[in-house]
Amino acid sequence: MEQNKRRKILWIIAIIILLVAFLLWVLRTSDQGPGVNENINPEPPVFTPPSVNLEYKKLDVVKENPTEFSVLNLAKAYTARFGSWSTDNQGTNIEELLPLSTARMQNYLANIEYNFDVEEFSGNTTKSLNAKIIDLSDNSAEVLVTTQKITTKADLTEDVYYQEVQVNLVKSADKWLVDQVIWK
Question: What confidence tens digit (pLDDT) does each residue in 106-135 have?
Fold first, then answer.
């Protein structure tokens, strides 16, 4: 009987130890809040930007005079518009170029034959990528424009190619006009 008493006492002591351990564990986790991991810092980190020493260098920029600027911009804009067309625009791009053209170029534009009776869409988008002045005097200029041309077909497939264009300009009164466009 004494052995049974001892066993009961040991069982009671073991249960008490387990209950105390469980209570300590519950109290410890409840202090941290629900679902909080011990390894996570509750404070968000503070971002400190790295120390960078920025130095600005003055670049040697070649500035164009107003005449060069006007000639280059006209040649690039004219080339992009002249080379961009579609079966949907019915020559609108050409009409927009008339005020920027000499009588000679206006005559050339008026004699371009269009075929708008096609049943399928096709079009061409031209972008002027670069332009450089080949020759410039007081009354005339020759500019070489590098273009990217994208031809779009009815099935919306595209062909991309590059082409140079020589644009000849003349000065009429105070205004530069395109006199000739030569696709190379």
Answer: 999 988 877 666 778 888 899 999 999 999
Determine the length of the chain: 184
Q: Is 91 left (phi over 0), alpha (psi -120 to 50) or beta?
A: left
Scanning the chain, the segments in alpha helix (DSSP H) are 2-32, 66-82, 92-97, 103-110
- For the chain, the 3-state helix, strand and coil shares in percent, each to the nearest 5, are 35, 30, 35
Q: Measured at the alpha carbon of residue 163, what is the angle toward residues 117 and 86, in degrees to the nearest 5?
A: 20
Q: Which residues pair with 133 in a beta bridge?
A: 143
Q: Which fold has domain 66-183?
A: Nuclear Transport Factor 2; Chain: A, (3.10.450)
- Whether the CB-CB separation of 147 and 82 falls below 8 Å is answered with no
Q: Which residue has the tokens 């070489």?
A: 144
Cβ-proximal residues to 74 (8 Å cutoff; 6+ apart), any chain: 100, 169, 176, 178
Q: How far apart are CA 143 and CA 177, in angstroms?
A: 12
For the chain, give every domain's residue range. 1-33, 66-183
11-45 residue pLDDT tens: 888 899 988 888 888 887 765 555 555 555 567 76
